[in-house]
Design a protein that fits this description.
mainly alpha; 88% helix
Length: 119
């Protein structure tokens, strides 16, 4: 298996982990704190997913403008988060919690690699 195939599989699994954690987390937040906070969590998880995909695509095929776009994505994410928070009155904590699903997904992927994908 080529290194790029392994990388592509890893990125795909990370995306699935983020979406799974986002869905489960949004359901849990909806039960505990309500629909508005669940929407904030889900939007944060979607932002984490899009950020991860954007980063992965920039690293897989880096070209001249790709480096600038890697930095620009933080500004886009921050601007979109600010607009969502102000427009919909969503709790910043729920949005931030959703963004952290990417970190939890990395932990799950490490555990997957340690216990399941040993070669």
């Amino acid at each position: 298996m080529a290194a790029s195939d392994t990388y592509t599989e890893l990125v795909g699994r990370l995306g699935k982990w983020i979406l799974l954690l986002g869905a489960l987390g949004a359901l849990g937040v909806a039960v505990r704190w309500g629909v508005r906070d669940a929407a904030g969590f889900a939007i944060g998880a979607l932002g984490a997913f899009l950020n991860m995909r954007w980063l992965a695509n920039g690293l897989l095929a880096p070209s001249g403008p790709a480096a600038g776009l890697l930095i620009l994505r933080f500004g886009v994410l921050a601007g979109a988060s600010y607009a969502i928070l102000k427009t919909f009155g969503i709790s910043p904590l729920s949005l931030l919690s959703g963004l952290l699903t990417a970190s939890a997904a990395v932990v799950l992927e490490v555990l997957y690699q340690l216990f399941y994908a040993r070669t």
